[in-house]
Amino acid sequence: MAQNEDDISLLKELLNVNLPQSYRDFPGVEEGGTTIDPPLAGFPISLDLSSAWGATEFLRAARADLEPYFIVIRIMDSKAVCMDLKKGDDNDAPIVEIDLENQSPPVAVSDSLSRYLAELRSNARKDSFVRIRNLSKEDDHWFNQGLKRLDYHMGELSYGYDHKDGGQLPRSHAWRPYRFCVQDVILGITTIRHDRKYNRLEVDVFLTARIPEYKEDSGCRALTLILLSDAYKSGGSMEIKFSEHVEGGKVPYELCELASSLGVNLSHIKNGGITPKEAKELYLSLSGFRDDVSKQIMELEGEGKLRAASVCYAMHHGVWTAPEIETILFSSRFPDTILTGSFPAEAWHLFHHDLFHGRNALMGGYLDRKLTGREHNVQEGGEEVVEMEDDERAVDISFDPESCVKIYRIEENEEGVGIPWLYNDINKPLIAPGESLKVLLRARDEQNLNLLFDNDLQKAIGLKSVNGDMVCIMVPGDFKRLEMVEICRKASDNNIGIIICPEFLNQLNQEVSRRFEAVKVMRQ
């Protein structure tokens, strides 16, 4: 976050200096939730030592022997860390350290304010990570070794990229440091690369944190998913190898504990290896699919119709959600083409099959989010409904492939929830705790809606008579144009709801086609 230009102009006038661009971009305080100690001197302008003006005036009074070309950015005990404007230019300036108690000459610290701040932030984040790691004596040695190895990699980066200016993204075979954060709290850090010689993923740093507010193994789970996802993305065999810098060349103890808790047996722990088969089982277990879904995935892989790793990656890459994948797996004859790249449009009948089942999954996904996401009323000059992140209702979502029906069950400890986007009047349009809602997904075009909707209605009536659950039919927004007054009346008479998705068929087709293209380029 850049400084306010009015503050910059006032500081230039008060100190009678020209400030480089790097200082204009200098926020004055650490961003990202970590703490720099001692803090940086910045704004607002005051005579306090926490202000750039106050700290610099203090320096000029204490070291009257120096020329007025030094701007303080930090006070450290009896020393001031400053920019040396005389040796700088319009873009940046070197950093020096000045003793406030004697007249010793300034000591060079860094050749650039930008580089000094980057190193300061990196060290602050690392220190924060160390403080929350909660080390035991047993893993203290390897944790410190991991930090040293991380420092080594950060100093040897073969690429340059940041979110603000862009730059060169790293190739898969280059060492790449990653950190996993939740709201700026670091849960784990790893450094990985694709080993071309052995066609596997190599891991050189694996550091996890135990945060009291999260489950104890959260950091390990997050890093393990990063490893597995990158092993797939890089196009390797899914084999993973830990270097001698990770617990002496063994599979990390935390990862072994995690695999054991998931029922995955790792056979090469002492050699620091995870085989492709073990990696696939671990990936599937960590992805959190329902047992019947995992079984279906494994059966399809055994038949050569699907790759389990590609399904997991499609979910973790954000292309399809777990419930959407379940809909595709159990309703489509060719789930592999939908999840890994559809048939070309030239093969019209096959492509249309993929498009239809992709639309059904997508439409069901919209309803998933509407039913699970809580809405909160806030007052800001009037009432406004907003959705809050990571605040979801406990809703069990399953799928019945025989009728292409999604089943939503509201958990007992939840409040009742209304049926969204309901088009017609039905009795009790509220799903109470412990009750279930069955939704027939019918993402048809107008012609087929007009032709087949009466048949869909009869299926819905049949489902309702089985156990008395609430039943609805979900259709695209195109349904409104059909003016099917008699069928809507018949649905209401039988207490069958009609849910109209806000999206029209062409919008659903565009989004599904985008996802088809996304999965085609996921693997390098």
Give an account of the 3D structure.
Mean pLDDT is 85; it is low at 29-34. Strand 14 (395-400) and strand 15 form a beta hairpin. The two termini are 35 Å apart. This protein is an alpha+beta fold and 524 residues long. The protein has 16 helices and 20 strands. Helix 6 packs across helix 8 (276-286). The strands form six sheets. The protein has a five-stranded mixed β-sheet, sandwiched between helices.
Quick rundown:
With 524 residues, the protein is α+β, with helices and mostly antiparallel strands.
Radius of gyration: 30 Å
The overall strand count is 20
Strand content: 15-25%
Amino-to-carboxy terminus distance:
35 Å
Percent helix range: 40-55%
Specify the structural class.
alpha+beta
Given as residue ranges, the uncertain stretches (5+ residues, pLDDT < 50) are 29-34
Number of H- or I-type helical stretches: 16
Average pLDDT works out at: 85
Largest sheet: 5 strands, mixed
Write the layout of secondary structure elements.
Elements: H1 5-15, H2 21-24, H3 52-62, E1 70-76, E2 79-84, E3 95-99, E4 107-110, H4 113-132, H5 137-155, E5 161-162, E6 166-167, E7 176-182, E8 185-195, E9 200-208, H6 218-233, E10 240-242, H7 253-261, E11 273-274, H8 276-286, H9 291-302, H10 308-316, H11 322-331, H12 335-340, H13 348-372, E12 373-379, E13 383-392, E14 395-400, E15 405-410, E16 417-418, E17 430-431, E18 436-441, H14 446-467, E19 470-475, H15 485-493, E20 496-500, H16 505-520
Parallel strand pairs: 9-10, 18-19, 19-20
Antiparallel strand pairs: 1-2, 2-3, 3-4, 5-6, 7-8, 8-9, 10-11, 12-13, 14-15, 15-18, 16-17
